[in-house]
UniProtKB/TrEMBL annotation, chain A:
<feature type="domain" description="2Fe-2S ferredoxin-type">
    <location>
        <begin position="2"/>
        <end position="105"/>
    </location>
</feature>
<keyword id="KW-0001">2Fe-2S</keyword>
<dbReference type="Pfam" id="PF00111">
    <property type="entry name" value="Fer2"/>
</dbReference>
<protein>
    <submittedName>
        <fullName>2Fe-2S iron-sulfur cluster binding domain-containing protein</fullName>
    </submittedName>
</protein>
<dbReference type="InterPro" id="IPR012675">
    <property type="entry name" value="Beta-grasp_dom_sf"/>
</dbReference>
<dbReference type="GO" id="GO:0140647">
    <property type="term" value="P:P450-containing electron transport chain"/>
</dbReference>
<dbReference type="GO" id="GO:0046872">
    <property type="term" value="F:metal ion binding"/>
</dbReference>
<dbReference type="InterPro" id="IPR001055">
    <property type="entry name" value="Adrenodoxin-like"/>
</dbReference>
<keyword id="KW-0411">Iron-sulfur</keyword>
<dbReference type="GO" id="GO:0051537">
    <property type="term" value="F:2 iron, 2 sulfur cluster binding"/>
</dbReference>
<keyword id="KW-0479">Metal-binding</keyword>
<dbReference type="InterPro" id="IPR036010">
    <property type="entry name" value="2Fe-2S_ferredoxin-like_sf"/>
</dbReference>
<keyword id="KW-0408">Iron</keyword>
<comment type="similarity">
    <text>Belongs to the adrenodoxin/putidaredoxin family.</text>
</comment>
<dbReference type="GO" id="GO:0009055">
    <property type="term" value="F:electron transfer activity"/>
</dbReference>
<dbReference type="InterPro" id="IPR001041">
    <property type="entry name" value="2Fe-2S_ferredoxin-type"/>
</dbReference>
Length: 106, 412
């Protein structure tokens, strides 16, 4: 279990207890956090689940694989700390993580 | 709000489009009651994983359901599961369930999806003959997953090939029987079909094309072999049949709503009845990119039409007009398809489908990009999605030239 805070583009925060093994995308989608579309349900096929991860947390997450890297290139609002939330699995190390959501996923 | 009345919205169907419609109705500001009627025991869930990770046993139902159980109650949506709708009475604006309930609506969304096409040969009802569309189906198929078991797959489309790939990982011997001359003939070009035949064979699957199934034979009521129309016998412990789907349009048709290759809707998902909308697999809808009507079997279409129906019901104009896209996961192959290639005049290959496991095929019609099949080539897929929408002419030589990146091609 890890406490995850999703911060919408408008500043609104949602703090959710997400079970280990779920992805950050699932934590958001299952708890009605707006701002993550996840059109393909987590198959790394659509790049609509993008989030910004603060640097100090990036180090605690396995790096991007090729597919994620290339999909991210096509997101509208990609920044250096962008990740696809469907590729990040929740572990106890991520307890307290805060991630921000982009203006839109399209 | 363009809905008045107290009966609220009724949604027939409890799948992808239905679930999206509920989410979107609330986010569009609709505050009245919503009732969703589904004939499965489960609340809405994703179907794509059923022939992939869910079948493989890598994830459970909790990872497949679209929303946790509390979501619907919290959203003021009543779920009526394990309930079949017997008829729609448009004059009274009620829906009749098979157990005799009358459920009144102000607006109705038909999101009945599709059902599997059943094979009509002798022995069709032998034990061990399976289809794969629902969670219940998967549980039945999984009972046969034992190392060394022999599976025959009837149908070399998405379902057949995905199931074959999963079964291979479980040490099951797999034979795929396909009537057409190549696999996935409905959805991809021959170049891509042959690539998939090569990879499946490399993985140890027997793929037989140009084979028709004449019947299933068994002992003691249980299947023991598949017999082909060409006189061959394929011994097996169980069979999975994946030969396509049929849209569930009967309720609409019986109620006098216009149906033709799907429930006919406009770009706002409105049917021929002003109080009835339809979304998802069951619809025939106009597409502006291709200038023709389409019936699509895809998650993307279900999601987008669910959103469009909710917008239309709440009085907003958000016409649905997008480039269709699809995906399939088999082994380490990620197939991503954007657009529809029917009617192409030129196919341009980027990369080498004869070796390795990544390449893309672009389909042009009179020079304009209309579709792409990309295998482990996300940039090709994502770029093409954007370019197809713009309906631009592209130079085939540049598309085939891997020294020019997709980004450069897009910005030219």
């Amino acid at each position: 279990m890890a406490k995850v805070t999703y911060v919408e583009h408008n500043g609104k925060e949602h703090t959710i207890d997400v079970a280990e093994g779920l992805t950050l995308m699932e934590g958001a989608v299952k708890n009605m956090v707006p701002g993550i579309d996840a059109d393909c349900g987590g198959a790394c096929a659509c790049a609509t689940c993008m989030i910004y991860v603060p640097e100090e947390w990036l180090a605690k997450i396995p790096g991007k694989e090729d597919m994620e890297e290339t999909m991210l290139d096509f997101c509208e609002h990609t920044q250096a700390n962008s990740r696809l939330s469907c590729q990040i699995k929740v572990t106890p190390e991520l307890d307290g993580i805060r991630v921000s959501l982009p203006e839109s996923q399209h | 709000m363009s809905t008045s009345g107290t009966n609220g919205i009724v949604i027939i169907g409890a799948g992808q489009a239905a679930s999206q419609a509920v989410m979107s109705l609330r986010s569009e500001g609709y505050e009245g009651p919503i009732r969703m009627i589904g004939d499965e025991t489960e609340p809405p869930y994703q179907r794509p994983p059923l022939s992939k990770k869910f079948l493989a046993g890598e994830i459970g139902f909790d990872r497949v359901e679209l929303k946790p159980a509390e979501f619907y109650a919290n959203a003021g949506c009543e779920l009526l599961l394990s309930t079949r709708v017997a008829a729609i009475e448009r004059a009274k604006k009620v829906v009749l369930t098979s157990d005799g309930r009358e459920i009144a609506y102000d607006k109705l969304i038909i999101a009945t999806g599709s059902r599997v096409r059943e094979i009509n040969v002798p022995g069709f009802d032998l034990e061990g003959v399976h289809y794969l569309r629902s969670v219940a189906d998967v549980h039945e198929v999984q009972k046969n997953f034992k190392p060394g078991a022999k599976m025959v797959v009837v149908g070399g489309g998405y379902i057949g090939l995905e199931v074959a790939a999963v079964a291979k990982k479980h040490d099951i011997s797999v034979t795929v029987l396909e009537t057409a001359e190549r696999v996935m003939a409905r959805v991809v070009d021959p170049i891509v079909s042959h690539f998939y035949e090569r990879v499946h064979r490399e993985e140890g699957v027997v793929i037989r094309t140009g084979v028709t199934v004449a019947g299933f034979e068994g002992e003691g009521g249980r299947i023991t072999r598949v017999v082909s129309g060409e006189g061959e016998s394929f011994p097996c412990d169980f069979v999975v049949v994946g030969i396509g789907i049929i849209p569930n349009t009967e309720l609409a048709q019986d109620a006098g709503v216009t149906v033709e290759n799907g429930i006919v809707v406009d770009e706002m998902t409105r049917t021929s009845d002003p109080d009835i909308y339809a979304a998802g697999d069951c619809t025939n809808h106009p597409n502006g990119v291709y200038g023709r009507r389409l019936r699509l079997e895809s998650v993307h279409n279900a999601i987008e039409q669910g959103k469009t129906a909710a917008a239309a019901i709440t009085g907003k104009d958000k016409p649905y007009n997008q480039v269709p896209w699809f995906w399939s996961d088999q082994y380490d192959l990620k197939l991503q398809i954007a657009g529809l290639s029917a009617g192409y005049t030129e196919a341009v290959t980027r990369g080498n489908p004869a070796e390795g496991r990544n390449f893309a095929v672009f389909y042009l019609k009179d020079g304009v990009l209309i579709a792409v099949d990309a295998v482990n080539r996300a940039p090709e897929f994502m770029t093409a999605r954007q370019l197809i929408a713009k309906q631009v002419k592209l130079d085939p030589k540049r598309l085939a030239d891997e020294s020019i990146s997709m980004k450069e091609i897009a910005s030219a």
